[in-house]
Each structure stands twice: as structure tokens, then as C-alpha cells.
Amino acid sequence: MSVHHDPHTGLHSEPGALAGEHRGRAAEPIIKVHDLAWLEFEKPDLERAEAFAHAFGFTTALRTAHELQLRGTDPGSPCVLIRRGPRSRFVGPAFRAADSTDVLRLADAVGGAVVPLPESLGGITVDLLDPSALGVRVVSDMFELPALSDQTPLPLNFGHDRGRVNAPQRPPRAPATVQRLGHVVLQTTTYLETLNWYLEHLGLIVSDFLFYPGQRARGPIMSFIRCDRGATPTDHHTLAMVLGPANRYVHSAYQVADLDCLAAGGEYLLDRGYRRSWGIGRHIQGSQIFDYWRDPDGFMVEHFSDGDLFDSTLEAGWAPMTASGLSQWGPPATKDFLGLNPGRESLQELRAIVHALRADNEFDLHRLRGLLKVASS
Ligand SMILES: [Fe+2]
Hints:
By secondary structure, the chain is of the alpha+beta class. 20% of the residues lie in helices and 30% in strands. The chain contains seven helices and 20 strands. A ten-stranded mixed β-sheet has the order 19-10-11-13-9-14-17-16-15-20, covered by helices on one side. A hairpin with a 3-residue loop joins β2 (59-63) and β3 (67-71). The longest helix has 15 residues, at 344-358. The structure holds fe (ii) ion. Fe (ii) ion binds at residues 183, 185, 251, 253, 302.
């Protein structure tokens, strides 16, 4: 059981692909995007969404009767766009192309149209559908919002390395100021087809593959995927994709300055009655210090700090997917995080499983058996 699990088995440094396994990158992608630009949502209650956003550490970039744009302190575009809609819904991600030439090249290749983005953002987009029917925008030339002042990491005394003298440590119990959007995690019934689409169209590359324990020969069921910017290091994952019985948003993650900001910001959220999903801990794939929360619409959002940065030279790692393998330290993964809490969401997932087993996709009985093993491993 998890007590004896050594979290350092299956780390990224473990041997990579076996002969004939997925290489984790396309030979000739159409373009190579630079980053995840923003995520778009619809929510019925913008007031409620904005109150949570401020407690979580976002800054409002724009607020109208119909729209809320949220940003971090980093310069650039807003990183979350929320339009007023009849029900809560994830609309899709936007990826930032290197330049407008790449947006045109991609539009040409798929027979899509390049259209202007809304005036508040500036720039252009080509709107695509991935194989799981999620809308994906590839954008460029937006207005650049200036940098905002940020939380400064605390000066720490590391062991005998004592730089802080005559100064008590007093991290403020304040929202953990969001610096930027880090990644989004998506679940899909057509994992391999959808993964390959992102590798071929956006030039993303796989940092780590996971497979169900005992099912490596059936291929991977999850991947952590980064942008290929050559020698420029990028986040270990900008997108993560997992096979499952329904196409849906899983969570998105936002960088904060350090562990104290993250932990004190967590206390601030608890003080205001918001619900922690899982944390605080340190992941294995990507190594981030993490803390997961539920926003008032039920969407899972993550504060993270100190994540891995890889350049394009590292090949994909391979490891089994287990609940205990989700962190190096921290409390055990919660039922809420694993989607096992009794309630509306798990009932929907159960219905989705029955439907997915009957439909033509990659989620079959072998995969269901693998999925059921993960939570208890
Ligand atoms: Fe995450």
C-alpha cells in the first residue's frame, strides 16, 4: 500500500521509451506555439467569480456587465476570460504563437480563417477544434498589459546559510498573488488521437508519459506536455492530457512566488470559507509545490511554485500512474481530487463510464480496470 511506496521510483530521470513506444513529439509539426495564453469560461454569476478570483490572488484586468478578464502580475494578456453564460462551462484554451506568420501558417494548413480577437485583447486568432471537439485558439499580436507589483519571496535562513538576522519572519496572511497561468489539464475519451493532434498542430512535446500499472504494453493514458522553444527552458507541462470516460476540464494552475505565499494564501482562502481539494504537497511529474482549490462553480484551480523547467533536449519519461505517485510529500490524494467524492460529479462520471464503454473511443474495459486500480495504489 501507499505507506511503502517510494515516490522516487518512476521519476523523470528513469529510463525513457522502450523500442516502438511513442516518441512524445511529432517529426514535423505545423508550428511550435510559445505558451498557453489564457483559458475561457462561461459562468452565470460574475460577482461570485470575481470575489473568489481576488481571494485566490488574481487581479481584475477588465470588468463589464457581461465579461470578467483576470490577470496575474506578469506582463502580457489576461490569463482567464469569463463571459456571463447560462451555466458554468469551460470553453477552451488559447495558445500563443511565436508570431502572426505562424497563425497564418496554421490556418492555411487546416483550411481555417484568421480573424481579429475582441478589441479589449487586440491581435488575431485561428479557432480550431481538437479531436475531442474542444475549441482551441491559437493567437498572436495581443496588447501587452504592463507588469504589476508582485509578492517578494521571503529571505530565508537555509541551514547554516544565515542571511536573515535581527528580522523576524512574518509572511502576511494575504491572497497568494498570481503571477501567471502555468498549465491546464484536460480529460479525453480519445487520448492518443487528441495527444497526437496537439503534437502535430502546435509542436508541443511530451515531458512524461504515465501508463496504467501492468498495462504499459497497451500504451500511455496520460501525458505532461510542454512547449518546444528549443534552448529556451519552458514549464515541464503547459498542457496535461488524460484518458477518461468523458471529455472535460480537470484543473488549471497558476504560479505564485514561493511556499510561504502559497501556504499563507491557502489560510486566507480557508478564512473566507473556500474549499481546499488537496494540498499542500510536492508533485513528482513537474516537481511543483502544489495546493488545489475548488472555485464556487466547482472548477478545480491550483496554486503552484518552484516547478521544473526543461529545454527541448530532454526525452519523455515513463512511469505507472498511481494515487501515491502523484506527490513526493504531502497528505494522501483526497477523494475530491481523485473525483471519488459521492455527489453529482461522481454520478456524472459513472454515467459517462457506462456511455464511454458502449461508444467508439479509446476508453474500454481494460482501461476501466486500470482506472479503478489507480485510486487504491
Ligand atoms: Fe497541476
